Amino acid sequence: MPGAEPFELAGADAGVLLLHGFSGSCSEIRGLGRALGDAGYGVVAPVLAGHGTSPADLERVTAADFFASADAAYREVRKRYARVYVVGLSMGGALALHLAARNPLEGLVTISTPVFMSPMVALSVPFAMRFMPQRSVISNYAAWRGEVVGYRTTPISALSVFLDVIGAVKEDLPRVRAPLLVLHSTGDKTVPVANAAYIASRVGSEHTAKRVYRGGRHLLTLPPHLDTVQMDVVRFLHSREAPYVTGPTARSRGGAA
Question: Is pTM beyond 0.90 here?
């Protein structure tokens, strides 16, 4: 799909793996990626399994495929950079937590990330899987409005896999040890804002921070929220980079500006 392509921005010592959300694409994180590149970080934004092509491709994707996509991308970033951060939007944030539970990270940021959904979603998807597993449902209203490139409809079977992914990540939270920043908004109508406090309180990280924006929306990586979000993300990354880089060259090396 034009606009859904993966992208990379070269950096020096510190690299950021940037993960898009379920039924979305790299178009929804491109602006944040540019801001991270401008701040001196290398950026790698892959396309997750089953995305960027056709909703029909999601019918063949399993939870293991999503985890494998994230694992493979992490290995590539780790080869290139001395220090690795992961920033994920929505399900991309859940995959970031999955990576942090299994790999050394210098830090991670979750944005509008679920480890559980509303009771209506959690109950209706298994019901639909039982009686009409081949059906598709309307999804990604930002794609309908033309704000991002993504799937306007999603197979119910893929929604079931999505619930499997976040359920597995929820169980992994105590294994997460990396410094963590959790970002969410009270206006998120897709992922319950209660996820933010749940994630921040259940991880095993010694250093956690949480910010919940008043109002807002699910896709905080789009204007008008992008400016605030990218400022918070860059500030967090700079704070983690500060022990490694100092002086006038810090900006070019992914450190404190």
Answer: yes
